[in-house]
């Protein structure tokens, strides 16, 4: 649509100087003549656009017109824009990309960049990003979905649910949904979903305060977690505080300290993390969890001729 194209052109020009008409034409898949008419429309609404000729010429907006935000300090501006960019590494959305460009246009970077961020490790694969778009659409249209699912223990199922929201936590995307068959709210890890299909069935269920529903579901999940006691030498206290910043370190003796972790009983990643510390940590209890770690270590070693 013309209005959308003009709005995005204004946002782009607020953030860039000397933008060639040919570049804008390619960006919006229109002709150069259409871009020239758009510039006339932009000028007509009071935004001072001017054209510079020559090899490196193009369209620009007068610098005195460009927006500034003096109420946000430089370091706060960096945090905001990097938070948006970190979200963009894990979530593909055209609106988000436009928002980042719009915010960049509103803040003026002075003195060069001082802080550099790399969120590449948090990037989800293309399959997850594609499913996020479909889940967004299904939630907006209140349509049921079906998919094949593999849980943390490797068990398989094919649920049919109403998608309510997707949310990003623990470096992964999750779907919060309602199961009409079980009449309960459930959370699914998007990376464990396959063969996602949107059904024709439209939900008529009213869910009330969705944010509260999600918080209640999360609290119910945390109640299933079990406390794990870990002991370690005092010289490793700094390392443990780094990996588990929310767990207070309790000094036991002149040589030993301990912490308590609350972990999901069947989550493999926690077991892998604990085993990665080798002989630097000692899992004291509960006995069932300790025995599971021992059996896991034995199975790992059984693959090697040692």
Describe the protein:
By secondary structure, the chain is an alpha+beta fold. It folds into four domains: 60 residues, Orthogonal Bundle (Arc Repressor Mutant, subunit A), CATH 1.10.10.10; 48 residues; 84 residues, SH3 type barrels, CATH 2.30.30; 76 residues, Alpha-Beta Plaits (2-Layer Sandwich). The chain contains ten helices and twelve strands. Strands 3, 4, 5, 6, 7 and 8 form a six-stranded antiparallel beta sheet that branches. It has a four-stranded antiparallel beta sheet with strand order 10-11-9-12. Strand 5 and strand 6 form a beta hairpin. Helix 2 packs across helix 3. The longest helix is centred in the N-terminal third of the chain and has 17 residues. It is elongated. It starts with a helix and ends in a 5-residue tail after the last helix. 12% of the residues are buried. About 2% of the residues have low confidence.
